[in-house]
Amino acid sequence: MATFKISLNMEYCRSADKGFEEGVQIVREIGYQYIEPMVHTGWELLSEVQYFHSFSMEEDPLLMKEICDKYGVEVSSLSGHSPLMKPEAAVSRLTRAILFADTLNARFVNTDEMVKPDWMDDEFAHQAMKYSLTKASQVAARHKVYICVEPHGIYTKTVDGLMRIVKLVDSPWIAVNWDTGNSYLAGIEDPYEGLQAVRQHVRHIHAKDISLAQGEAERGLVTGTPVGCACGEGVVDWDKVIEIMEPIDREIFLSVECGTISEAERSLHFLKKTLGKLVVEAV
Asked: How large is the average pLDDT for residues 1-10?
């Protein structure tokens, strides 16, 4: 039987222009025990002046741990989204994110295929992704960190496309991060049938709800969205999601992806109530 831990993707505080440390402080104040930080390479201006939550991997990963320890929060996973079709960027970003995650005792780095260049055909694109994932999976295996590919782009908007990427490399360390909102917005397949089809490969879930208004405006026109509304206030059938995943005998993080601090607070209350005894709290 599956058990669940509830985490919060740090995108929740982007609309409030909060830096990483203040974002972590607020996370703890509203009751979360786990976070999914976004990480980047290089030095990003808004993060440096503490108007944006993303954390530079040029920093010592133990600095992130120090900040999280200060507020009693643990890192569940890293948002290490890297352009798999651009190996010169993806290999470096994923490798560093895996090393970062291992230092923080986080077992999941989330990514997707991102944007396909116009000059690249499908076969070329998959060969490029295979190279990126081959290099990164070797590091993942050494550090026992899962690279979790999520439905978000031109290929991953269908189950067949998602699993083709996951299976480009024969590695148990390449898995699925199921995004409940993106799979709905793609509008190509039933999102619950999709989750049922890939559930054995799911190691992490982005708990993203989609408002009725956004669904009506965008479903079938986009392949994903950065954040959703508060969990329980949109179109996602959370009882169905839990029913599908409950037979899978592993611990699964539900990382909430919403757009505001108040939505994060309401999402936590809703998911705790909905999951009941299936929720595992931090020790």
From this structure: 96
- pLDDT tens readout for residues 113-131: 999 999 999 999 999 999 9
Residue-wise pLDDT for 97-110, tens only, equals 999 999 999 999 99
**Residue whose C-alpha is closest to residue 125's, from 155, 98, 159, 80:** 155
Average pLDDT over residues 227-252: 97
Q: Which two tokens stand for residue 114?
A: 């991102």
Structure tokens at 58: 């040029």
Residue in the structure block whose two tokens are 């490969």: 201
Dist CA 11 CA 25 (whole Å): 14
Helical H runs in 144-260?
A: 159-166, 180-186, 191-198, 212-218, 238-245
Instruction: Please name the amino acid found at residue 82.
Output: S
Going by C-beta distance under 8 Å and a sequence separation of 6 or more, which residues neighbour residue 252?
A: 2, 3, 4, 5, 202, 203, 204, 205, 245
CATH architecture observed for domain 3-278: Alpha-Beta Barrel (3.20)
pTM above 0.90, yes or no: yes
b/e burial code for range 59-76 (CB count within 10 A of at least 16 → b): eebeebbebbeeeebbbb
User: How many angstroms separate the CA atoms of 163 and 92, rounded?
Assistant: 23
Q: How many residues does the chain have?
A: 283
How crowded is the C-beta side of 149, counted as CA atoms within 13 Å? Answer: 36
